[in-house]
Every structure is written in C-alpha cells, then in structure tokens.
Amino acid sequence: MPQAILFDLDGTLADTALDLGGALNRLLAEEGRPPVAHEHIRPIASHGARGLVELGFSLHREAEGFDALRLRFLDHYEHGFCDCTVLFDGVNTLIETLAARGIAWGIVTNKPMRFTDRLVPALCFTVPPAVVVSGDTVGVAKPDPKPMLHACEALGVDPARCWYVGDAERDIAAGRAVGMTTVLADYGYIAHTDRPHEWGADHRIQHPLELLALLAA
Question: Which residues are catalytic?
Fold first, then answer.
C-alpha cells in the first residue's frame, strides 16, 4: 500500500481541454485564422501552451515569433482558465477513499503557478491536496524528476512508497526516474500518434476509480 499518490492535473484529475482550446481559438481569431475543432485540441491539451500553439499555427517552437504567440495564448487562458474546466467523474470519490485509508494525495503538474494556484481551489476538491507542485515551482518541469522529489520531500514520503498517475509520456518518465509506481490514465489526453504501450507504465486505468481496484489488488 502506498503512503501517498500524486497526480498530474490536466487530463488526469481535471478536464481542462475546453478552456485551453478556447484560449487557442481566441488567439487564432485575432490572427485571422480559422478555429481548431475540439476533437483535434483534446489529444494535445496535455502538451500545454507550446503544444497548442504548434497545433494551431503549424509552427515549430523554435521558429521566430513562436514565443510571442505562446505568451499571448497564456494571456487569453488567463481570462478563461476555469470557465468550462471540471473534475473527471469519480475524482472526489477517489480522493475521499484515499483519505479514509490514510493515503496522502497531491498534484505535480507542468501548469504554471499563475494558473495552478487559482485553479486548484476553484475545482472544489472535497479533500484538499497535501502538496501542489507546478511547472515552475522548482525551476524545471516534468519529465525532469525534480518536481517529483520536491513533492515527496514536502510529504515526507520515500518515492518508492509513492504512486504517480498521469496521462502523458513525461508523467511516466518522471515517475519511473525516481522509483515511483506509475499509472497511466488512459482516459486522458492521449493522441492517436502516441505510443503509450511503450512508455513503461506499471499500470493503466480507464477511469479514475479503477485506481481503487489496483490498491485492493
């Protein structure tokens, strides 16, 4: 039984794709470009501002002008980061059960603190996270292992006694790098071009509550 379970935020605990897509399409409208359909945005949502700007503008992130577009995207997201975002079905039941079993839970996300610090309280978790680590909390983001180690240190938990649940390759890579048991959230933002079977997750789940079955096993 783990002492703690850490989660990614976008695509794992919260469905943020509609708000991220809204920010992208407002930016595209400013540039006189057509909107991107939600079914194309959703699989890319976990890749954040850079991934969405690449999608919307077919522009490589090293290209001239890319960073200016990224910053404008973030400004648009600033004004609508919690309009349509909701927790995935079963998340509050899951964390209530973890709390009842004495298992701490927390968040390690690549989302910047300027959004995480306001979005997490707005999501109305029935049991608040014991730790929240954002993409800029320690100066580097996943797949670098430092955010994972920072969260474990804050919880006073050995990484080997911690599980990490996420929906992206970088989530699994970061968890594996520090010796955590890793769980891939297959219900999250996974593109058809991704190869999740090659990411090396210890377990895969199709719904948040399936995590409880893993714990029971």
Answer: 8, 10
